[in-house]
Amino acid sequence: MKKKAIRAFTLIELLVVVAIIGILAAIGVVSFSGFTGGAKVSAAKSNHANVVKSISAELKKCEMGTQNLSLMTTGTATVNVPCAKSSTNTASMVTNFITHFNASGFKNPYTQADAISSTATTEGVTRIEPNQPTNGQIRITSYWIDETTNVVTTQPLVSVIGDER
What we know:
Elements: H1 11-63, E1 68-74, E2 77-82, H2 90-103, E3 116-117, E4 126-132, E5 137-142, E6 145-146, E7 151-152, E8 157-162
Parallel strand pairs: 3-4
Antiparallel strand pairs: 1-2, 4-5, 5-8, 6-7
């Protein structure tokens, strides 16, 4: 009777393969977390740009003679906000914009909570506030985590929009 030679991997060969897979997995996890960190920074900056463009466009509508702005309050509900400064000062307009953006689905890329606030200075938040209510400016500031220091950036994006209504 002839014995058949059994072909199989040795224990050493299997251990080498497992070690290689472990090294590749470790590299992949580190790379993936770097990509997600960069994506969160990009999302925070994108929220900032979209807020600036939207507020500028809405205020321009008022300057061109529109009587009311239709802004979201919750879900699909809207409210008509008067354009006249005598009816809606800059601080009130800011409050309406904050509600509108959060109802529109702007999310903090770090926490998935609302991304727009009037006071917060945490990562992923875009803060909208009246810069100087007496002269009608709106200040928009966005924060994110600095990838080199792993703390909230000390140099946030800041934009100021004149409320010329």
